Every structure is written in structure tokens, then in C-alpha cells.
């Protein structure tokens, strides 16, 4: 069962740690006491929790014919999942769509009804696929509707696994589709301090390898990925991130299905990194400043050891792909989307991802330190006080992590359009330039 946080208005945690001047190392000590505050979010159904299939010996495989109990599949292949099943305790009466052509007016109406819009009757449904650049490992479409009876939003977003084989391979490797369905069913009801898109349907079919979510359509402010986040956007994103991390800081595995450094870590990716990073370096060498390519290749055989040490840090729930592409801005209000890689990990994983990928090189150099200060100050407002020198070390280690993980994921990916490829190349250049600016290679000098 998921751990239900105790109700309290006060949270206090203090972390400090002595690091060597170089080398990748885990924090040898910290002190922590905390109470957590939780309130029920009633608009999303989460009536049951997963149980570890490996620990209990139970599986929850659906029957071959409808009605099908929705499940998250057994995930023994994953680098970060233990084999498990997840059920909502509900019997579903509609099939999960495989492609947008399956999103018929009748299906969409039934999906909304099962998601809680009981009695609604749709007059028309129009599905408008978004360009590939809107979803790297998932395909998205805007669904426009009119109502014959009942009422609701006039537009929704539906998200399916990517049709692009390379993108689908990455999504399957990370079990991204199952994780996002589980997030909206299980985490969203408790993430009351985080601005999320309202979920109207989250469906999974283990046997057919199908997953789908229907979310509210949000009109966000325009931004230019190639130009990078403005300073105001960066500040808003950092504030939202600190609030999200504070909610789950050092929680005791609140969701049993969720992967994390405290379960089996990310060391299982090491063989993939060793196989894929040389190809990545060859493909992207023109934007990798010397000697950063050497650094990432040297880190690959040490990933497992780093993962084990990082697991001793205080962990929180992380988005694990916290980039400007996955945020919707409405002034200083930030809605976080794309929860396909949520996990328990060091907090610096998210902050380093956002700052190094989402700001231009010039803006990052000018504002990186102040944004880190802002994040830590925001945490301190919730009673979580973190030693800055410790956090800087964790931040740098996670920059090194992103060098390898982005390289692993992009080594063989052909996104299929020039705009998306240009954005990916810019992202890689920004991360590796940040690594050079911060002299990340020093971390390898005395590590295992």
C-alpha cells in the first residue's frame, strides 16, 4: 500500500555533508526529521494501490476478452522497475486505443464517462494530431468536442505511445507509458501543491501493450525552445520544482510501483551506456566541446557505483525530464506535464536538467548560481535546509548523469523532422557546455 502521509502543518529537515574536493562520493551523513502535509484531491480517482508481485507472488494479469481489469504490466525488463502489477480495482469496459484512428466519437464519449463525466453525451469529436516535436516518446493530439447533453471542456489532449519506432523503443525501455498512467492514477491525487493538467482518463492494456491518457487542454504562453527560457520563466519553473520536491522530500517509498535509486537504482543502464555512448559521441561530436566526450565515456563504466552511492542521499520524487518542453507557462504559473519518467532520485537531477537544457548558454552562465540559490531558499521556506556545498556536488554529479543519459537515449534516435532534431542538438550542446563550464571532469579524478 502507498504510505499515507501524516497530517501536520510543520515540516523540518536539515541536511549537511562533508564531501572530498574531488571524486564522486555519497553523502556520509545527514540528519532529518519531518512531518508531511497531505489533503485529498477529489477530481481524480485513485481507489487502490499496487503490490510488489515479486514480493507477494501475486500477479494481476487481465483476461483475454473484455471487460478487462486495467493493469500496469509486469516490468521485469526495466532498468529501474521491479516486476510488479498495478490495478485500479475498476473493471474497464472499453478497449485502450492503439492509434488516433481508434479515437472515435463513441470511444471518446465512453472514456470521458469512465473518467467521471457520467451522463455526458457528445455531439461531435474531432481529432487533430500535433506535430512530432510536441512529444518525443509519445504522440499527442488535440480532441475538439461539442456536447449534445451535459457539459465540459471543448478541447482535450490525448496521449498515446509513439508511432516512431525509435521513440517507441526508448519509451518501452523506460516503461514510460505505464509510469505516466500510474502517475495520474496514484500520485496526482496527493500532489495537491503541484499544478498538473487534470486527467480525465488513464487507460492501460497489458496484453496489448497499449496505454492512453486524456488530459485537459491548457493554453500556455508561447516560448522559443531554441532561444531558451526567459529569466522570469526560469524563476517560475524553479519555484514550482522546489515546491514539488518539498512535498515528497525523503518520503519512505510512498508508491511501491515507482522506480527509484532506493529500489535498484540506475546501474542497470550501464551496459546500454557502454554500447550506445560511442555512437552518440560520433553522431554529436560537432557540438561536444573537448574534452567532454572523454568524460562521458569515462563515466559510463562507473554508473553502477555512482548509482549505489547516490542512493544514500536524501531522495525525493523527481520528474526526471524537467525541461522547458515539459512545462506550460501562464505568467508565473507553471503546469508540469509529461510524467513518463517519474521516480525517486536526488533532487539535483531535476534542477540540473532544467538549468542546463532550458536556458541559453549565455543566460545559464549569468544566472545558474542565483537559480540554485533560489531553489534552496524555496526549500528552506518549507523547513528543508540543505547545505549549499553538498548540493553543488550533487548538482554536478547529476550534470554528468544527464550527459550520459541523454547520450544513451539519443544515440540511435531519428526523430523524423528537422525541427525536433535541431532542438535535440541544441539541448545536447547546452548540457555539454555546462559540463565544461563547471569542470565536471574533476569528479572522475578519484572515483572508482
Task: Throw out a few tags for this protein.
448 residues, alpha+beta, Aminoglycoside 3'-phosphotransferase, Chain: A, domain 2, 5-stranded antiparallel β-sheet, 3-stranded mixed β-sheet, 12 helices, 14 strands, globular, disordered N terminus
**Spatial order of strands in the largest sheet:** 5-6-7-9-8
CATH architecture of the largest domain: Alpha-Beta Complex
CATH topology of the largest domain: Aminoglycoside 3'-phosphotransferase, Chain: A, domain 2
Task: Note the overall shape.
Answer: globular
Helix fraction?
A: 25-40%
Radius of gyration: 21 Å
Give the CATH level 1 class of the largest domain: Alpha Beta
> Quick check: average pLDDT?
81
Report on the biggest sheet. 5 strands, antiparallel
Oligomer state equals: single chain
Brief write-up:
The protein has 448 residues and is an alpha+beta fold. It is 36% helix and 17% strand.
Task: Describe the secondary structure blueprint for this structure.
Elements (H helix, E strand, L loop, with lengths): L12 E3 L15 E2 L20 H4 L11 E5 L13 E7 L12 H10 L6 E9 L8 E12 L5 E7 L3 H10 L1 H12 L11 E7 L4 E7 L14 H18 L21 H15 L7 H8 L3 H8 L5 E3 L8 E4 L2 E4 L6 E3 L2 H11 L2 H21 L2 E3 L1 H23 L7 H20 L11
Parallel strand pairs: 1-14
Antiparallel strand pairs: 1-2, 3-4, 5-6, 6-7, 7-9, 8-9, 10-13, 11-12
Helix pairs in contact: 5-9, 5-10, 6-11, 9-11, 9-12, 11-12
Give structural notes.
There is one protein chain. With 448 residues, this protein is of the alpha+beta class. 36% of the residues lie in helices and 17% in strands. A 5-stranded antiparallel sheet has the order 5-6-7-9-8, sandwiched between helices. Strands 2-1-14 form a 3-stranded mixed sheet. A two-stranded antiparallel sheet has the order 3-4. The two termini are 37 Å apart.
Amino acid at each position: 500500500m502507498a504510505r499515507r502521509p501524516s497530517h501536520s502543518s510543520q515540516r523540518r529537515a536539515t541536511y549537511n555533508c562533508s564531501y572530498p574536493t574531488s571524486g564522486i562520493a555519497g553523502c556520509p551523513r545527514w540528519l532529518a526529521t519531518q512531518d508531511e502535509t497531505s489533503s485529498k484531491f477529489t477530481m481524480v480517482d485513485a481507489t487502490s494501490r499496487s503490490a510488489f508481485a515479486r514480493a507477494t507472488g501475486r500477479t494481476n494479469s487481465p483476461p483475454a476478452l473484455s471487460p478487462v481489469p486495467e493493469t500496469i504490466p509486469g516490468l521485469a525488463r526495466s532498468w529501474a522497475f521491479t516486476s510488479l502489477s498495478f490495478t485500479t480495482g475498476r473493471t474497464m469496459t472499453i478497449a485502450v486505443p492503439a492509434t488516433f484512428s481508434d479515437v472515435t466519437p463513441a470511444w471518446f464519449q465512453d472514456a470521458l464517462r469512465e473518467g467521471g463525466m457520467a451522463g455526458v453525451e457528445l455531439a461531435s469529436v474531432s481529432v487533430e494530431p500535433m506535430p512530432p516535436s510536441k512529444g518525443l516518446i509519445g504522440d499527442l493530439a488535440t480532441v475538439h468536442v461539442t456536447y449534445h447533453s451535459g457539459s465540459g471542456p471543448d478541447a482535450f489532449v490525448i496521449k498515446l505511445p509513439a508511432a516512431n519506432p525509435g521513440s517507441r523503443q526508448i519509451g518501452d525501455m523506460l516503461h514510460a507509458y505505464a509510469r505516466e498512467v500510474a502517475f495520474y492514477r496514484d500520485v496526482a491525487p496527493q500532489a495537491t501543491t503541484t499544478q498538473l493538467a487534470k486527467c480525465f482518463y488513464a487507460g492501460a492494456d497489458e496484453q496489448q501493450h497499449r496505454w492512453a491518457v486524456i488530459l485537459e487542454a491548457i493554453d500556455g504562453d508561447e516560448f522559443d525552445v531554441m532561444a531558451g527560457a526567459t529569466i522570469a520563466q526560469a524563476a517560475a519553473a524553479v519555484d514550482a520544482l522546489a515546491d514539488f520536491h518539498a512535498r515528497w522530500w525523503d518520503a519512505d517509498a510512498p508508491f511501491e510501483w515507482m522506480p527509484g535509486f532506493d529500489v535498484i537504482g540506475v546501474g542497470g543502464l550501464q551496459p546500454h551506456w557502454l554500447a550506445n555512448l560511442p555512437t552518440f559521441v560520433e553522431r554529436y561530436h560537432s557540438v561536444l566541446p573537448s574534452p567532454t566526450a572523454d568524460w562521458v565515456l569515462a563515466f559510463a563504466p562507473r554508473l553502477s557505483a555512482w548509482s549505489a552511492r547516490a542512493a544514500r542521499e536524501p531522495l525525493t520524487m523527481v520528474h526526471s525530464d524537467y525541461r522547458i518542453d515539459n512545462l506550460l507557462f501562464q505568467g508565473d504559473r507553471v503546469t508540469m506535464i509529461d510524467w513518463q519518467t517519474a521516480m525517486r532520485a536526488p533532487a539535483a537531477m531535476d534542477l540540473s536538467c532544467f538549468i542546463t537544457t532550458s536556458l541559453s548558454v549565455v543566460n545559464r552562465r549569468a544566472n545558474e548560481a542565483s537559480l540554485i540559490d533560489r531553489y534552496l531558499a524555496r526549500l528552506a521556506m518549507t523547513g528543508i535546509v540543505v547545505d549549499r556545498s553538498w548540493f553543488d556536488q550533487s548538482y554536478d554529479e547529476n550534470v554528468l548523469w544527464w550527459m550520459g543519459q541523454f547520450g544513451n537515449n539519443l544515440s540511435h534516435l531519428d526523430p523524423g523532422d528537422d525541427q525536433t532534431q535541431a532542438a535535440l542538438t541544441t539541448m545536447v550542446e547546452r548540457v555539454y557546455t555546462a559540463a565544461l563550464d563547471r569542470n565536471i571532469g574533476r569528479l572522475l579524478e578519484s572515483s572508482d
